[in-house]
């Protein structure tokens, strides 16, 4: 329970602060109590110098600036309160960045996704320390770390500054700076509740083996949360449909439900595609229909069963089709694909897909 005291008179700025704060806390499902204080004597007693002002849990006082910085200070106040409560039930969209073009393209995609899903952007830089050999001693260079930290802080500040005039509709962004091994740190972040991750890729072939590209491949198999992979030329467009590749409904029913929930948030159609060979077990379409309609009765969906003699060719054509807006699949291993390529189909898709790809983890907790 968050204890809120809001100080001020019945001015438009007071009413806006009250309304925006209540809307945000309720949307985040954060329990709160709110006391409105209008008496000047109480302002003096509580050492409130200017109003409107907000006090949280009788400890943290935020005075909203009215000298041209009102929107900025209100935005920062609300963000601080959300952070105290770990952002409640809001979706945290982790966007790893190495300050490359690929990672900034992923940020642009995540920004639009955050507007659709009403999420919090967590722009994250994992700094891996480099050492300098001085007189046979390995020393970490703190100046290099400071440069990386400043890069992140400057970008977050510039973006938030640009949003001051439209703070009511623009996503809140937090800069997260960590020191350590990128893969390990991001895997730990992926375990947090209500988290998704958006990463850029650098394309197929040797280019994909750059540090950031190989990191996204590592997370395909190790992330505990839904992972969006964004190719370098991909841009966010309003989704008309999300294509989900389903292999076995018994194994991926939780993933299908997650995609159905996402489609509801994006207000778009779900298209389920299954590739079937002659010797495959029948795909139970009626069970898929029953699952979707029991959880999402208003969801528009289409189920497509494609017979094929060559699963590899069919999947490759699908991955390389630039007309899709978003492809979704799980990290389940397809045995036939494993035997051909000695890697998961999700990893192959990450290297060849021409459109953003949503990879859903096998970890059940990611789907709760």
Description:
The chain is α/β, with parallel strands linked by helices and 368 residues long. It folds into three domains: 83 residues, Glutaredoxin; 139 residues, 3-Layer(aba) Sandwich (Rossmann fold); 127 residues, HUPs (Rossmann fold). Helices cover 40% and strands 23% of the residues. The strands form three sheets. It has a ten-stranded mixed beta sheet, sandwiched between helices. Helix 7 runs antiparallel to helix 12. The radius of gyration is 24 Å and the shape is globular.
What Rg, in angstroms, do the CA atoms define? 24 Å
> Beta-strand percentage?
15-25%
Give the helix tally: 12
Distance between the termini: 23 Å
Strand order of the largest sheet: 9-6-5-10-11-16-15-12-13-14
* Main sheet specs: 10 strands, mixed
The whole-number mean of residue pLDDT values reads 82
Can you tell me the CATH superfamily of the largest domain? HUPs
Report the CATH C-level class of the largest domain: Alpha Beta
CATH fold description of the largest domain: Rossmann fold
Tally of extended strands? 16
Q: What is the ordering of alpha helices and beta strands?
A: EHEHEEHEHEEEHEHEHEEHEHEHEHHE
Tell me roughly what share of residues is in helical segments. Answer: 40-55%
Shape: globular
Label the structural class: alpha/beta
């Amino acid at each position: 329970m968050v204890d809120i005291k809001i100080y001020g008179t019945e001015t438009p700025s007071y009413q806006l602060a009250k309304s925006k704060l209540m809307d945000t806390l309720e949307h985040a499902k954060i329990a709160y109590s709110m006391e409105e204080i209008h008496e000047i004597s109480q302002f003096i007693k509580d050492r409130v110098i200017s109003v409107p002002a907000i006090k949280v849990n009788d400890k943290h006082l935020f005075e909203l600036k009215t000298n041209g910085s009102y929107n900025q200070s209100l935005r920062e106040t609300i963000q601080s309160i959300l952070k105290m409560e770990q952002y409640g039930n809001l979706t945290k969209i982790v966007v790893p960045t190495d300050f490359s073009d690929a990672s900034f393209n992923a940020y642009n995609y995540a920004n639009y996704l955050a507007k659709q899903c009403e999420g919090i952007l967590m722009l994250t830089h994992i700094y891996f320390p480099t050492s300098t050999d001085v007189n046979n001693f390995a020393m970490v260079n703190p100046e290099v770390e400071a440069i990386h930290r400043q890069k992140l802080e400057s970008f977050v500040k510039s973006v938030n500054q640009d949003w001051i005039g439209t703070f009511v509709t623009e996503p809140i962004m937090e800069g997260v700076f960590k020191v350590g091994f990128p893969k390990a740190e991001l895997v730990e972040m992926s375990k947090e509740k209500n988290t998704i991750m958006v990463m850029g890729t650098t394309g197929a072939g040797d280019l994909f083996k750059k540090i950031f590209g190989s990191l996204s491949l590592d997370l395909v198999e190790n992330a505990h949360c839904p992972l969006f992979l964004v190719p370098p030329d991909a841009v966010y467009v309003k989704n008309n449909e999300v294509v989900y590749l389903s292999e076995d409904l018994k194994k991926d029913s939780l993933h299908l439900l997650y995609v159905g929930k996402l489609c509801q948030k994006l207000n778009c159609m779900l298209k389920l595609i299954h590739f079937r060979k002659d010797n495959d077990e029948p795909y139970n379409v009626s069970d898929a229909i029953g699952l979707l309609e029991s959880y999402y009765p208003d969801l528009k969906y289409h189920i497509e069963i494609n017979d094929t003699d060559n699963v590899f060719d069919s999947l490759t054509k699908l991955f390389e089709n630039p007309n899709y807006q978003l492809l979704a699949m799980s990290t389940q291993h397809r045995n036939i694909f494993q035997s051909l390529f000695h890697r998961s189909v999700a990893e192959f898709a990450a290297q060849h897909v021409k459109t953003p790809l949503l990879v859903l983890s096998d970890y059940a907790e990611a789907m709760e």
